[in-house]
Structure formats: C-alpha cells, structure tokens
Amino acid sequence: MTAKNIERITADRAFVRAKGNALRRYPAPERDGDRLYPLASPTVTPSFRIGADDTIFAIGSCFARNVEKALEGAGKRVLSREIDLGEIGASLGDATNFFNKYSIHSVTNEIRWALERDSFPGADILYPMGPDRYCDPQLGMARLDFDADTILAFRHRYLDAMAAVKDADVVILTLGYVETWYDTVLDLYLNVVPPVQLIRAEPGRFEFRVLSYADVLEGLNELHALLTRHRTKPLKMLVTVSPVPLLATFRDMDVLVANAYSKSVQRAALDEFVLGKDGVDYFPSYEFVTLSNPAVAWSGNDYRHVSPDVVNRIMSNVLVRYVDGAGTAEAAMTAEGLLASAKMLQKLDNWPGIVALCEANRALADGEVEILMIEATAARRMNRLGESFAALQKARAIAPRRHDALERMISLCRPMRRLDAARDLLQAHAADFPGRSQFREKVTWA
To answer: CA-CA distance, 322 to 376, in Å (whole number)?
Structure first.
C-alpha cells in the first residue's frame, strides 16, 4: 500500500513558510519560555468564526462536560446542557456520567440513532440485570431501576435531546479513549465495559478491542458525513482530545504506556481528519493541559481531573480566537481566562508572573475585583506596596461594599508610613462597615 502524506509541498515553499512562522521554534527558558511553563499556551489559526450569539453542542468524553460548563459560565448558549430527561434523568443525577461518550464509536452511535431513529436498536440495548432493572452500556455504568417500556421512553427522550446537534451553530467533539468494548451479537461498539454479570452469563458475546489509527479516522469521517447529511446550517466544528488519562487499562502493559498510545493515536488521526474539511478545526485542549505545570493543571493534584481554572483558561482562548470582541486578542484572554490564569499562578506563588499578566491585560484586570485583589497580593509579596495599594483602590471603587479591599488598604498604610491616610480610611470604614469594629480596634498603631 502506498503511504499517504498528510501534507506535501516543495522544499522552497517549506523554507519560505518556516521563515514567516514566528512560533516555529520550541520554547526555551530564554526565549518564549512563558508560552510553555507554568501555563502552556499553544496557538491556533481559526478557519472560521463563531458568532457572538451562536449556539454550541458539545459531545464526547467527560472533558466535554467541563467544556460545556465553562462556555455556559462565559454566557454562551450550550444546547447540550438544555436537556430535561424526566423522571429517570432526575433519578440518575450527574454522578452517573451517562452523558459521556468515551470513544468515537459511542459518539457516532448516539448521533446516528438521534438523527436516523430507525437505526436505534430499541430494547435490544437494554441488558436485564434483575426484575425491572436494566443497564445500557451506551449510557455509562448507571443501573436503570424501571420497567423496559419506561426506560425506552426515556431513551427516545434522550435521543431527542441529542438531535439538537443538527441545530447547533458549533459542534465541539472531545475524543476520550481507544480501549473499547464490543457486543458481537448486536454488532455494536459499547460506551463502557459491560457488567461482569453479563460477561459471566455470555462469556463469548463481548470483546475488548483497542482501536487503531484507521479505526479512529474511519469513525471520525463517518461522524462528519452523518452531521453534514442532516444539517441545514454549515457545520462549524472544533475537535480535540481529552487530556483526562485512562483510570486503568485492560491491556497487558503499564497504564502509562497504554494511555500514551490512546491519546497519541487519536491526536494523530485528528490531524488527518481536519484536512480539506471546511469549518473543521483542531483545538489543542490536550496540549494546554499536558504541557502545563502539573501543580496547576490537575484539580486536587490527582493527575487525572483537569483544574476548573485550566478549563476556563482553555475556553477563554477558544472564545478570543474564534469570537469577535470576546477579549484581548493579543493575549488570547477573556476576563474569565485572566482570572483563571491569575489563580493558577497564585497556586505556584508566582507573584511576578501575576503582576506581569495583569499589566499585559490592564483593561481587563482593572474591571475585575477578584483579579485586582490577587494582583494586590502579588505586588505586596514583592514589596511593591504602592502598586498593591493602587490595585486595592481600584477594587474598592468597583465594589465599595467589600470590606476586605478597604481593610487591606488600611493595613498597608503602616509599612507605607501613611498614618494620616490610615486615619481617614478608618473613618470611612466606620461609616461604611459599622459592624466590623473588631478590625478597627486592632489598628492601634494609627
């Protein structure tokens, strides 16, 4: 078989293009080091724009839920969050993860069934676990304690919600894993491992399969064809790989090695997938997380769950790159992203980094109380007392009912030797916060 290149250009064109690429060289401590550590900031060039009022539908592994929450928090309308699943949905709550689709096949299954309802297997995908108890491995590990008819009605309601993917302006796909499970009777890839009870009952029915590069690419192309076939709007699609690693592997190898394959083969397939597809871009969420300092990348330092601050930083970058007027293009930053970045630098005690970040995004920082408070702390730790005081003044002007900004200003007056200013501020404090006399009683030095 003849090898297929994902790109082929003449040598002279390659050298000309390289000369014009300011981001061509890998960062080093003395050059562009802040693009990599402590917070990686890979850059992309969008091939399409997202309108300020465009709706979004996110699907894929658990990281897709992080994306949804961050975008919703940034004021975007996320159709994949506007789901009412009735009695069964309410009984399951969020803990069951039945929204998560961990492989390209489980994503495609759900979208195909939603848009081409005749393909839905119906009761065949409900595996009996006892009297009026079933499981559907396409919907995670949840046990459904209802009769089959009630569950099927719920299942169609779920598919109705998934069908919103054809109406959304932007589709975000997050690939998870390539370790998959297959039902040989239904000729169907499952979303999660079937219950051990079922495997024991029918030991030859289920297979463990590790997807290849060709498997992943074929699944991506199948999903793209399905979406374009059923949409009336042009498809605008962001694809990425979840940075969340495997919890455990079923392969006979170290989970670190298995996870490296799982992520890298999907990352490689996406580079070929986006070629020649208008309105389809790869966005480097995976690189944002895995290249950053682990101390800030992972929530609770568990090495698996991405810090909400990092997710906000990633989505800030998406919005600034793709949505006109969403933030400062120079630093690819929204107010939410700036706050998230400042919090991450604070975890590392990187006080100079915080001050530099705020200076680089002065207009954004000056409009956000929480950012100014962090900047004030950073400047104080660097013994730049005047700058700390100025940041607190701005914070107080924005939120005059916050006592902490005023109290920190009063406390700063002592090392700054501004006793007269401290007395004036104490009078303002007594007028604005009469109930906080305990603080005033401690300021005996004034």
So the answer is: 32
Does any domain span residue 87?
yes
pLDDT in tens, 370-417: 999 999 999 999 999 999 999 999 999 999 999 999 999 999 999 999
How many structural domains are present in the chain? Answer: 1
123 domain-assigned: no
275 within a domain of the structure (yes/no): yes
The number of residues making up the chain comes to: 446
Is beta strand 179-183 parallel, antiparallel or unpaired with respect to 280-282?
Answer: unpaired
Using DSSP bridges, classify how beta strands 127-130 and 143-144 pair: parallel, antiparallel or unpaired: unpaired
d(CA 446, CA 434): 18
> Domain containing 55: what range?
40-118+162-291
Cα-to-chain-centroid distance, residue 242:
8
Rounded Cα distance, 44 and 46, in Å: 6
281: Cα separation from own chain's centroid: 16
Joined together, the tokens standing for residue 32 give 């562009």
d(CA 58, CA 273): 18
Q: Are 232 and 201 in contact (CB under 8 A)?
A: no
Q: How far apart are CA 277 and CA 335, in angstroms?
A: 32
CA atoms within 13 A on the CB side of 108: 17
C-alpha to C-alpha distance for 336 and 181, rounded to whole angstroms: 39
Secondary structure of residue 131 in the 3-state scheme: coil
Q: Are 359 and 371 in contact (CB under 8 A)?
A: no
**What is the identity of the amino acid at 111?**
I
pLDDT digits (tens, 9 = 90+) for 2-43: 568 889 999 999 999 999 999 999 999 888 888 888 888 898
Which are the contacts of 24, defined by CB distance < 8 A and separation ≥ 6?
A: 18
Distances (CA, A) of 103 to 120, 122, 233: 18, 21, 26
- Both structure tokens of 431: 């007028």
Please give, one letter per residue, the 3-state secondary structure of 128-194.
EEECCEEECHHHCCCEECCCHHHHHHHHHHHHHHHHHHHCCCEEEEEECCCEEEEECCCCEEECCCC
Residue 389, in any domain of the structure: no
CATH number at residue 70: 3.40.50
State if pTM tops 0.85: no
- Higher-pLDDT residue of 270 and 316 is 270
CA 97/CA 86 separation, integer angstroms = 16
Cα–Cα–Cα angle for 99, 118, 152, nearest 5°? Answer: 50
Pairwise CA distance, residues 173 & 178, whole Å? 15
Alpha-carbon gap, residue 177 to 170, rounded angstroms? 23
